[in-house]
Amino acid sequence: EAGVAQSPRYKIIEKRQSVAFWCNPISGHATLYWYQQILGQGPKLLIQFQNNGVVDDSQLPKDRFSAERLKGVDSTLKIQPAKLEDSAVYLCASSLVRGMNTEAFFGQGTRLTVV
Amino acid sequence: AQTVTQSQPEMSVQEAETVTLSCTYDTSESNYYLFWYKQPPSRQMILVIRQEAYKQQNATENRFSVNFQKAAKSFSLKISDSQLGDTAMYFCAFILYAYSGAGSYQLTFGKGTKLSVIP
Predict the structure, then answer these.
(1) Hey, what domains does chain B have and what are their CATH numbers?
(2) Partner A contacted by B46 (CB < 8 A)
């Protein structure tokens, strides 16, 4: 079974530039998550999709971050404009269904450096 | 607010020995699941073990076991017969159901413990 695919693996941009990350979840997984992991901290949920609808985006900085999941499969996360504090690893995860006992499968993440 | 505290930023253990990673959490909910995730240098988070809050019996997965103390809100991970491949960041996390809005299952992570297994 193929895992969660993310690209790019690394990205370096200057502040005020824009950047986009792509995620392809495991086939058939209805739920998709984007997490932000700042160095030295645990992942923090940014947004959660159920199929192509947003379930929870309460921690997404909506003035600069946006995300979409067209057709309930692939997803993109965009930052525009980027700030220095956005430097982090952005993790995508997916799960078969929503639930407490549902295992989330993670991709390898995109390491973003804003200079 | 839901919080997870891992008080040991770094730990080391000799190969083949046993090590215990500590975790405490805070929530007013009674129904939730607890997890330990492993994050090797490749950055991919991997589920190690999970525990349902309603189950008193501690979960076990091969060399990994937990000590779940619900009243104390403590959830420690024991790794027996440590192997070099166990070297990684370990994150304690719990999930509960948030009733606000459309409702979501929110997974909250601690800051992690960096475990080094020494040959």
Answers:
(1) 3-118 (2.60.40.10)
(2) yes
